[in-house]
Amino acid sequence: MKKFNLIMGGVMAFYLAALLLTGLFMEKQSEEKSREYLVEVNRIMYGLEEEGGFSEPDLREMRFINRVTFLNAGEMGDLQKLEGFFHKKNGMETCIQPLSDGEKMLGFVRFDYQNASGEKERFLLVEGIILLSGIFMLIVLLYIRNKLIKPFFALRDMPYELAKGHLQTEIEENKSRFFGKFVWGISMLKDNLKASQIKALKLEKEKKLLLLSVSHDIKTPLNSIKLYAKALEEGLYDTEDKQVQAARHIEKLSGEIEGFVQEIVKSSSEEIITVEVENSEFYLKDFVKQIREYYEPKCRLLMTEFVIGKFDNKLLKGSRDGAFEAVENIMENAFKYGDGRKIEITFYEEEYCQLIKIRNTGEPVKSEEMPHLFDSFYRGSNTGSREGNGLGLYICREVMRKMEGEIFACQEEDGMSFHLVFQM
Fold it and tell me: Is it true that domain 280-423 has CATH number 3.30.565.10?
């Protein structure tokens, strides 16, 4: 904020300096121009004195002199002519010079020249424009300061606090139309992080309780197995029937332990991601427009051919945000694991459903890996050393199923294709 205040002060100082310097410059120019008429007066007078009398001079090349009149010395006694000669006319400035032939006075020459008020008016106009533009700039800077910079400074520490895990920090409401949605989004982010934190703690607690419970339950059959094994080792079961019976007890107890282990594995493999989708309806045209505006610049930057086929504008069931999240995961996989040559989106219908096919060129997934493609944390062999967590396609499937749709993948001759199925 201090730097912005310094910028405001600098801008106003610049405008004040410009106003002062412009005024001084134009005043100097005005003074110089106000005396330029004397050059023309002296030139005309020199010509008249050379001629030894008055004759109407040619004023076409004169910049300042507009009119020249002569009062003969013999007419000096005529008060009416005398008054008319010296009377100021049409707001013009006048200059009167005596004319002689070197021996006697011939009369007086009057020069009417342009008033310098035009220069003064122009000077005031320029000064006024500079002053008004300075005031306007000050108003704009104050508006930016109060409506943008000041609210932003009030929120600048919030993402940092959230990143440190301080989720109890309260977010002040902001009615600014510039930051209202931003504040609302930060508030939603804080609530979601808080809910995720509570959920993670609850899940961690449940898993620890489960492990403690199962580990306790395992001890009983495990101790029994040890006893049966010790008895068999020391020959306490001296008949074949007793030995078979002990072996059956060991098998039964092993089955119990196996059941506990399966319970642990099941708990560990439970899906930890909850996908929330608010279903409604959306138009395919708006959805495609969103995809095009988001991915055309990115494909152009990566020099990837991006093709969107023809389609009919249908009303689809589901959530446009959810559908875009599914497309986003598929597109990011195409950028990450494809060869970058081409990504193509086409549309077709089957059994009263709208299908969107997203195809990218590159190495396809192996046939034996296809059944596991949408499993959580699963990554195909074609991912190589590229980073990833194996959740993108799993999220796609969960989102589509939440919208009563489906997703499936196909191997292509030179890549992969993913098909999103929407209800109409």
Answer: yes
